[in-house]
Write a structure and sequence with these properties.
Rossmann fold; globular; alpha/beta; 43% helix
């Protein structure tokens, strides 16, 4: 009988030690995991989202203000800077407007000689920005309207959203965006694509940057599902 009781006491002691060891091991595992997680937080963070690239075509006659507009959008100008020289061929500007969204602007020169080659750059674009000098003459306005109509008739640009930028609104002879919309015949254009019209001034480059990027995002979101997952 005494032998049975002795074996029982030994078994209880052994069980108690095993239980204590298991508890300590569990606590150690939790502490180690917590330390590793805090020191290597990046290992447990979700993978970064891939950037979405938006290709934007920027057109307009020479001297309309395309280069100044893009320089302002890219944050390269202040209200005291001189206007940059007109683009003679083509130029690129890249603007990151969100953590995972990039706007790639391709500006084409607006001289008559370069306009002959505009259609070579129409492919693989998501949106068209067309810049008009609000203070230009009637003749230049008519020429600008004809150039716009030709480029929008291209099959490569069918249905793409259009952002019309009425630049140089600070000039005393500038006409209103509403009149420019009418003279360019945008009423017909709006039947086949989304259209937005904004005005800009060379005295407010930060305002131009905010207005252009905001309107572009609105046009893309309304026209396509391109930004659905952004």
């Amino acid at each position: 009988m005494e032998q049975v009781k002795e074996e029982e006491r030994r078994r209880q002691k052994t069980t108690g030690r095993c239980t204590g060891c298991s508890f300590l091991c569990a606590v150690c595992r939790i502490v180690c995991y917590t330390c590793i997680r805090r020191s290597c937080q990046c290992c447990f963070s979700p993978a970064p989202r891939a950037r979405t690239e938006i290709s934007i075509l920027v057109l307009g006659l020479q001297g309309a203000g395309k280069t100044t507009l893009l320089s302002a959008v890219a944050g390269e100008l202040t209200t005291h800077d001189e206007e940059p020289a007109p683009t003679m061929g083509f130029a690129f500007k890249t603007v990151n407007v969100q953590d995972h969204l990039t706007l790639n602007f391709q500006e084409l020169g607006g001289s008559e000689q370069i306009r002959m080659y505009w259609d070579r750059y129409y492919a693989c674009k998501h949106l068209v920005v067309y810049v008009v000098d609000s203070s230009c003459s009637e003749e230049v306005m008519r020429e600008s309207g004809e150039a716009l109509a030709r480029c929008l008739s291209s099959p490569s640009l069918t249905g793409l959203p259009l952002l019309l930028v009425c630049s140089k609104q600070e000039v005393p002879s500038a006409i209103s965006p509403a009149k420019i919309r009418e003279r360019l015949g945008l009423g017909e254009v709006e039947r086949e694509r989304k259209v937005a019209v904004i005005s800009t001034s060379n005295r407010g480059h930060q305002t131009a940057r905010e207005s252009v990027t905001k309107t572009i995002l609105q046009l893309l979101d309304a026209q396509t599902e391109l930004l659905q997952n952004i």
